């Protein structure tokens, strides 16, 4: 979960970087660039797991993600998660204004802008809504069962947010839709050609 939250931040930053610093972005080495992102995301996730283990208390809890940590570790985790989600939304808003100012007349740019606007709303009611709601529940709700019920509802929002970007890009932007279709068509052609080669080689051996 922490890894995916951090990677979502880098994905948003990657899109802003590709638009703002195009030449610098094209010169980046893919292996080193992706490796750096994965390393930072992995380090962030592991750091909180270690911090949670150090501050762990021997007490019965319900099997939920937020109950795996307590005290200062839980507070730090929630603050960092909210800050990262606010950063993602801020980057997407900046990217939206950037694209709108470049070429609003181009249909492809307009469609990408609309998909970004939809993704911002999805992200607000997904990760950000989940973490803010959890923090609010921790401070105001004393009943463990009521808090668990709140976490279940908020968890649904978070899970929907994981799959939402694919549907947003596919249905709100024909540019992304075309590229996604090309990707699946290439896989289909590759599988078909592989099966054809196998059948040809089988016939030749008979």
For the structure shown, list the relevant keywords:
mainly alpha, G-protein coupled receptors family 1 profile domain-containing protein, Rhopdopsin 7-helix transmembrane proteins, 206 residues, membrane
Can you tell me about this structure?
With 206 residues, this protein is mostly helical. It has one domain (1-200): Rhopdopsin 7-helix transmembrane proteins, CATH 1.20.1070.10. The protein is 86% helix and 0% strand. It has 7 helices and no strands. It has helices spanning 2-20, 22-27, 30-54, 71-102, 107-140, 144-172, 174-205. The longest helix is centred in the middle third of the chain and has 34 residues, at 107-140. The N and C termini lie far apart (53 Å). Residues 201-205 have low confidence and may be disordered.
